[in-house]
Input
Amino acid sequence: MNKQKLTKVIFLMTAFALISMLSAREAPGVPSFKRQTGQDCLACHTIFPELTPVGRAFKLTGYVLSKSDKPYQFPPPISAMAQVSFTNTRSSLPSDSVGDIWSSHFLSSGNNNIAAPQQLSLFYAGKIYDKVGAFVQGTYGSDSNKVAMDYADIRYANSFSICDRDLIYGITLNNNPTMEDVWNSTPAFSFPYATSNVAPTPAASTLIDNTLAAQVGGAGLYAYFNNLIYAAFSVYRTADTGITYPFGAGNTIDSIVDGAAPYWRVALQKQWGEHSFELGTYGMVANVYSESNTTSPTNHFTDVALDAQYQFIHGNHIISAQTTYIHENQNLAGSFAQGSAANQTDKLYTYRINLNYYYR
Output
């Protein structure tokens, strides 16, 4: 791409972004949720997908809150999203790192990559029937040049009182450990909320830090008592065959779990006026086959994490902060036996902190 053409493309994309921001009067969310509830997106989001207390309650109760008293939504809660990206890397990307794909072929060269689109997504987001709802996203990605399952979370939720204290409880079927969570400090919906498909990323990440996203399917139970204590427990298996296959449909399964992988979560929340604070812990244990080879010994991972979140929401002003620390113990018996790991045992640590101020 010549310099003049690149300058025009960057100018047009910048102008489009500025016009979008200047014309925006509310935080963008999934449109079908807004149609279903009749509420502005800013009731549930600071920015998408960061949730407010109202948004957390909406998710906990199964995505079914509606302005209609019918047990179903009509028309169905369908939405769509298009995402365009421009990525500039300091050095030119290797020639084979970006495929010859229609969405980036005409506008990309060297260390400048324009994906138009980077992603096209279709959502079913809202009530299915009565107390059952879902947030399911299928996505075309320009990096893979195919359509695959993205996020999937299907829920049944209900509530009752114990000694005049509310207990919300539910069942979730989802495809990413931590996806059932309602705070943005855990990996599934943590910052950064959107990334480039082609920019280099760290070579190592803990298993619970989205490594198994759309690679597994699982079922879990959760409960939220008195707007104070939250607990959840789920079990996941690889989404390559059987009942869990739809949760990984279209994806290349390169993390194969041996048997089942349990996930757990406990959190305390306190809300007073315009302030809310959460402190919690989460983790999982899994045996994963080395190099996706089910005839090899497995690697054993134990992840234990701490997290916290603070929000202040007042009129035009919002302050939010999230942090998490993940400690992973690794027994790499499978990789070590195959010569792809220098040590049989190792540790990996992740620390992430995010602080935001939003005006209007």
